[in-house]
Design goal:
The chain starts with 7 loop residues before the first strand and ends in a 5-residue tail after the last helix. With 955 residues, it is of the alpha/beta class. The longest helix has 23 residues. It is elongated and about 120 Å long. It contains 43 helices and 15 strands. The chain has seven domains: 101 residues, Winged helix-like DNA-binding domain superfamily/Winged helix DNA-binding domain (Arc Repressor Mutant, subunit A, Orthogonal Bundle); 137 residues, Rossmann fold; 89 residues; 79 residues, Winged helix-like DNA-binding domain superfamily/Winged helix DNA-binding domain (Arc Repressor Mutant, subunit A); 116 residues, no CATH class; 80 residues; 89 residues. Strands 4-3-2-1-7 form a five-stranded antiparallel β-sheet, covered by helices on one side. The chain has a five-stranded parallel β-sheet with strand order 9-10-11-8-12, with helices on both faces. Strands 13-15-14 form a three-stranded antiparallel β-sheet. About 2% of the residues have low confidence.
Amino acid sequence: MLEPISKQVYARDNWEIDLGRRELRSHGTPVALGHRAFEIIEVLARAEGRPVSKADLMQRIWPSVAIGDNSLQVHISAVRKVLGSDRNLLKTLHGRGYQLIGGWTTQQGGVKERPPIRRPHPRPEDRPSTNLPTIVDQLVGRTGAVQRVRDLLSAYRAVTLAGAGGIGKTVLALEAVRALVPDFADGTWLAELASLSDPALVPSTVAGALGLRLGGQVTSESLARAIGERHLLLVLDNCEHLIETVATLTETAIRLCPRTTIVATSREIMRIQGEAVYRVPALDVPAIEHETPEVILGHSAVELFVARAKALDTGFSPQPRDLRSIGEICRHLDGIPLAIEFAAARVALVGAEQVAASLRDRFALLASGRRTAISRHRTLRAVLDWSYRLLSKEEQHLLRHLAIFPAGFTFEAAQAVGGMGLGDLSIIEELSSVVSKSLCERVGSISPVRWRLLETVRAYGLEKLTENGEYSAAARRHAEYFRDLVSPITANSRGRLNHDDAARCGRELDNVRAALDWAFSPDGDAEIGAMLTAAFAPIWQMLSLVGECRDRVERMLVSPTSDIRLSMATELGLWLAYSESLTMTLAPFEQTRRIVQKEFDLIASLDDVELQAGILYGLWSIEYMSGNQVAALVSARQLTEVTSRGGDAMKFASDSILGTSLLRDGKLIEAQDRLENVVDLYVAPSHGHHAMLFRRDRQVLARVRLAHVFGLLGHTDRAYAEARTSFDLAEASGAGITVCWAVHDALCPIAFMMNDLAAAERAIGAMNDWAARMNATFWRMMASCWTGRLLIGRGESARGIELISQTLEACERTGWRMGYVEFLGCVVEGLTGLGRLDEAGVKLERAIELADQCGEVWYQPELMRLKGEFLLRKSTDLFAAEAESCFRAAIESARAQGALSWELRIALSLAQLHMAQGRGEEARQGLAPIYDRFTEGFNTPDMRAAQLLLNRPSP
């Protein structure tokens, strides 16, 4: 600590820096500033206008103590805060440090002395310097918070630790000040105010804690004058029910006691000048996503839970299954330490799974705390009862009604549900008060501003809402609000939701779920539910929640109001989303076709290009995913004709779709032209509203299919780079269906072409994860097929064949056969390799038949190659000529498509046959020209095999 220079004062305009009294004064009146924050001013004043580096400043104020930049910034901010409108006097010199600017003059004394304050009598040596209680339990997960509070206490003279009941304000305050006891010559003292009910007793209670004997009525003023210039730290614990009196006492002490620092714990802040507020955060809880036991244990809430459970049962040792339940418990309890301690006590008795399952009635469950705790901390209900009773009637009403929002709320939502007809100013005041009392918290920094109740507070509020007979009316207003919020957005978008609209609606997902659950309940209103379902259907689609979309729409369809009249755009959006969700969840093909026919009927009388295009896309989609590529190509060409009458955006979308069908039809060059047109030229509109056909990211999907085209054309390195890029873009978009398309149409096929089985496994894992999150049975099936192919590639052919076969049988039953022919080809290859030739022959004929019938032209060269290999396995002597004929026909088919990769693979099979027949020169002559046409991809298995064969010496 710096040594003061007696009576030296630096002055400028209205400011004085008094080094003797260690005061910063404005207009002659001291301002509240912590001792280390004052030392920053002192160092900068002594530098007399010269810059002081950050390192020098930290070394002089915290000698031999390692502190971080955050600690210094806390103190710099404190100085600037008291300087107010003159904050520019403290200048930051980037890369050089800090500087106190302006024409400061020095003087010895010369300032009007304040009225003398009685110096304290020396403390008897046998009197302790603190009355802080002895440490009982180790503080868990609060290292950063402790340091933050200590920084604030050395930067400010009044600090409030605010937070919800049970958040751990008291234990944090005590841990933070315990290490500061040596810094205060006259001690560190705790005044517990929890048991007080009369505000007039606060000053005398504090005086008693300080060991001051004051005669007569003790007031804030008389207490402050008794403290005088004592150098002490005072902790005022549990202040919320006496907040006005505590605020007056603190403000008076800060004004009259220049060497006193006060820290208060309260659910509500004091709102006094010079107060620094630290909002005590909850402990860190595991995320909802699946986490490993090691990761779960790394969260501070779980660490506290396990520590408390072990303290009650020394034999407690959580197993991996227990840790998942413990993580769920901590998450439901919002990381509130007191609630976690109560839950840990129950787990020690009945087990983690039982407690996790019982948390729906958390107040009955968490009903016993420590016997030594203050009465309102002995149960979770008592904690909340205490906070609730401190609210005004209007605040209680608002809190109860805010509990109806499971996903948080905006100001407008709070006004609609709990406003009681009050004006904006009234609801702002009530909401601000509830927030300031730590019963409600702001969520992030998004716009518009959102708040939420902690889950425990929300459960309590719902209970009170029901007890007061207000639940039904509140639930109705809640459902009506979200119907009125979402309906205009989706009705006006015609499937073109921009990012902001989608994000705004997506944030209300849990609110919409709750509204629909109420609407379709016996006490609800099915008409509100039907309108909200129809409006939100495109949102579920954009959020890739296909299973939920299907279930919610079907629930609406069986409701008594299923014939409710909707706007054309809303109804079309509903059926488009529903038909896609039926596809993704593997509903029967004919059922989905009927839905698309209904979409056609809706627009039959309309001359609307965009609506017609939307329906044609729906038709193309179900034909494509059912494996009927002939019909899909017809729909794609019809779509192109329709969109020729629309804008450029629609034309780009139809190019993407037609390019995809041309790929399946084996017209690779045409497909490349169409897809490159979209990738290179489409520019998203500045307003973010894509055309209806872009409700899936057509530009990303065009890149996906283009990667596949490049792979078939022999540009394998470029194809792999494009596939990885498209996958990354899909992941970044957060659209699960787009991710699955990227894996299915690009990343997996090309990873297998490159024999990068590790990459294929990662991609399949991503598809599986998204399929589970979306509840999309279709994509789970596709992931199973790719997993089977991976097993075959790793030599586990029997397992792979069984997995693919079972999956294809399930697809066959539902009518959805996208990728069917290709995966059947994998089965044929696996069976042939195992020598199960009879089965392979049956599957091969079925694959060839389907490829011809369904228009899977692109895969026909490979099927012809597989047939040649199959014939050779049956008998080289008997079927060599027939096999060679198959290979030559396959080469011609691949060459007609421009599929250089197929052509090489087939030529390699033919060359190997010729080598086995002793026709080595003919083998080289057939293979070499094809090999020489490649300019990249020399590390693929087919290219390496061809190179080895070409380099083999002649016999």
